[in-house]
Amino acid sequence: MHAWPASEVPALPGKGRDLRIHDTATGGRITLDPGPVARIYVCGITPYDATHMGHAATYNAFDLVQRVWLDTKRQVHYVQNVTDVDDPLLERAVRDGQDWTELAERETALFREDMTALRMLPPKHYIGAVEAIPGIVPLVERLRDAGAAYELDGDVYFSVETDPHFGEVSNLDAEAMRLLSAERGGDPERPGKKNPLDPMLWMAAREGEPSWDGASLGAGRPGWHIECVAIALDHLGMGFDVQGGGSDLAFPHHEMGASHAQVLTGEHPFAQAYVHAGMVALGGEKMSKSRGNLVFVSALRRDGVDPAAIRLALLSHHYRSDWEWTDQVLADAVERLARWRSAVSRPDGLSADALVDEVREALADDLDAPAALAAVDRWAERQNAEGGTDEGAPGLVSRTVDALLGVAL
Known about the structure:
Layout: E1 20-23, E2 28-31, E3 37-42, H1 53-71, E4 75-82, H2 87-96, H3 100-117, E5 125-128, H4 129-145, E6 149-152, E7 155-158, H5 174-183, E8 200-204, E9 220-222, H6 224-235, E10 240-246, H7 250-265, E11 271-277, E12 280-282, E13 285-286, H8 297-302, H9 307-315, E14 323-324, H10 327-344, H11 353-364, H12 369-385, H13 393-405
Parallel strand pairs: 3-4, 3-10, 4-5, 10-11, 12-14
Antiparallel strand pairs: 1-2, 6-7, 7-8, 8-9, 12-13
Helix pairs in contact: 4-6, 6-7, 9-10, 10-12, 11-12, 11-13
């Protein structure tokens, strides 16, 4: 599966700061110190309805991570998956009378278009669950043969009790885990499981649903968590720098994935930092496909909204905060974009050297994009009111906003 085209990232004078970021597992900030190549895995979409503002906010957060790393003169090895076979996708296809593969391909293509328009840097590897199945099956077999997985009516489950580190990602108690498991795709009430929290690794073939050859597992399809583990281990290996996604993935998805990988390899941790973006609401409720309260990037683009304004609307909220999309949020972003473009359109201006440092420091401080925007606001306000004599300043501001915030002026 191919990703989307990359926009050029301008080089800035000097060197950026190392990233200090909130780690869900420890509950505090850690300073990331990757080697020459920083490694990041971000969980992708299930392509039956793409791309709403909740998606966009999440991918915007991890685009900033990439940009901060690139500004430190590192390379970035970014991997993202597409869960192109799963219950919600199959259910939507049945509801709409569509072929599930056509639905997945169409929505994935739309997601690529949205990411391109928003100038999100693409992953080096963009892998679908279906194409990953040949690598998933041996991992499930290894877990089963090691006694870390068991069969139940043809399905194969992972035993969470085989990982001594289980629970260290989300730091939730058993009851909270059980409630979230039921809410987020698990089956804690299924009779016969060793532990209600045990997640499915391999689902035996169901009538009327797609299935693949699972070798000794029999025909079926993979569970959700093992999909990402197989892709991450194949392309990044253990101990990569950042595992990213929305806050609703901390449990069960990232918790279970970490346990799968740790039992498979005997190493810990799966990732150095678990980083989670907040949820976006609409009308007082979390924006979600199940509720149908969605604002789509593609719909805004069709209505003529500049993608740069959409991106500024996302950047105006700290990535870890939960916030609500409103018409005013977008209107403020449109106005900000106009002010910034007016400021950099002059042939000369106020010195921007200090601004570059301010934006770098804000983003290195747990991706504080609102502080970065405020710094540019201050420069633009003075530039529009007073002007200056530095011929290189407007261009430097444009390159800084482009390189570090992904906004083209």
